[in-house]
Each structure stands twice: as structure tokens, then as C-alpha cells.
């Protein structure tokens, strides 16, 4: 059994994920962490979830704190704290504001919970994953981000809808930046176990429209309802369950790479990685030539933004 801590539990995503995380059979305690001054909200949220758990018959303890020292003893720390993206705002615009928040929390995580796994959700998630890795001083296998996991699920849903099949029949990935330069891996996409480019109907598939719909998925939701909550929340819970269940699944998350993808690396970015109780291990892969070029462009973009943020924080 494990303890999961949520930093930023008073935010939109942070205040939802205690629900799906409490359904993970390996979790027996959840710690809600918020900033000083939000004690009343945390108390109310805690009591509300306790009622929810009682009604559902969930045996999961819940506690809250405004002191990062209480992260000690957590096996997974989910970091959602930071300024939320607004409609029309790029994820990268949040970098300098959120990096300071992430660096402070990550440093404390490394101090009081060095054996935990940090799951970064705060945007821009690839840059923030690098900040958390550097500030915490923790092993690379223990720090990772939501990355393009949700984007991959969005692509999966689009393909399943167009081919009129169950989503479980589709396997696909988005890699690279969680943002405008993300790269669809058509070479690794299958429908019913058959490579998608070997299906005659693939020639008529509106590929550009599908990819643009996925890339704009978060922006569309934010514009229409103010924030993305349920998709990210369930995606986060999936990653937590995969880690704590020692499942060894390969999912697409933001992780530190060096040579795993055509020797393009020295960056935290969305790549296929094996997740288990030890943490996250990127999987070496070979891409089609066009995918290599697009991925390298995405890496260069994130590497440059990461370098600027780390330099400004004094973490280079």
C-alpha cells in the first residue's frame, strides 16, 4: 500500500484527482497539499471527499497540509501547483511564473522524500519536469511528467471514432513537446493490430485535421469551459496506478532522454517509457525519417526553453 501526495490540491485538477486516485487499490492514503492561507478550502475539500469515499465504500485515508515537510513518507508526489493556462495563452507563457513554484517544491521533495516518484503536471510540463529534476537532485528515473500521455489518448480516440472501432483496438502515440510541436507516430499506429498505413482507407484519412484537433484539444476545452480537469485527472490516475502496480506498461510521458531516440536528447520530453514501481525508463526507438526531423525540431524547441528557465533560476 502507498501514500500519494498532491501538491496544488486547491486547483482545478488538484482538487479532482483525489477521486480517481482513491480508486487505485494500491493507495491507502492521500495527502492534499496547498499553500498557506488555503486551510479552510483544504479542510472542506477533505471532508467532502471523506463523505464521497464513505458513500462509495472506499477505504482510503485522507489528510491535508500547507507544510511541504509533510511530504515525507509519500511514494508518489503529484505536482499540479502553478498558474493555470487561460484561453489564448500558450503553455510556454507560464514557464517563468511556474518554474519558481516547481523549483521550491521539488527541492523540498528531494530533501524529505528522496525515494518518492515526482509526477509533474504543471505546465509547460516538459520544462517543469526538467526544473523538478534539477532542483530535487533526485534520480532521473524518479522524476517524470504527464507529457504527451493525454495527447496520445486524444489521438487514439480520434482514430477509433473515424474507424468505428473500440478504443482498445487502437494503439498510437504522440511524442515530443506537450504543445504545438508534438509529433504523431503514424509508423507506430495500429488498428486491430494492423499498421494503419497498411489499411487502404488510411489514404483518405484527414491526417492534418486529426493532428490539429489533438494539438488544440486543451485550448478548445479551456475556451469552452474554462479549464481541463477530467481528462488530465484520469490520465494522472492511470500513471499513478501503473507505477504503484509495478505494471511495466509503456506509456508516453515526459522523461529525461539522452540517446534513446536517434541520439537526440539531453532534454525532458514526451517519449515512450516503461513505468513501474522503480519509476520511469525511456524505451529506445527508431522512427521514420520524417518523424525524426519533426521530433528533433520539437526537442530543440524544448531544450532552448528549458535552458533559459534553468539559467534564470540559477540551476544550470
Describe this structure in words.
With 316 residues, the protein is an alpha/beta fold. It folds into two domains: 2-145, NAD(P)-binding Rossmann-like Domain (Rossmann fold, 3-Layer(aba) Sandwich); 149-312, Lactate dehydrogenase/glycoside hydrolase, family 4, C-terminal (L-2-Hydroxyisocaproate Dehydrogenase, Chain A, domain 2). The protein is built from nine helices and 14 strands. Strand 5 (117-120), helix 4 and strand 6 form a beta-alpha-beta unit. It is globular. The two termini are 37 Å apart.
Give a nutshell description of this structure:
This protein is α/β, with parallel strands linked by helices and 316 residues long. It is 40% helix and 20% strand.
Helix-strand layout with pairing:
Blueprint: E1 2-7, H1 18-22, E2 27-33, H2 39-56, E3 61-65, E4 76-79, H3 95-112, E5 117-120, H4 125-136, E6 143-145, H5 149-163, E7 170-171, E8 174-175, E9 183-184, E10 190-191, E11 194-195, H6 207-215, H7 217-225, H8 230-244, E12 249-257, E13 267-276, E14 279-282, H9 289-313
Parallel strand pairs: 1-2, 1-4, 2-3, 4-5, 5-6
Antiparallel strand pairs: 7-10, 8-9, 10-11, 12-13, 13-14
Helix pairs in contact: 3-4, 3-9, 4-9, 5-6
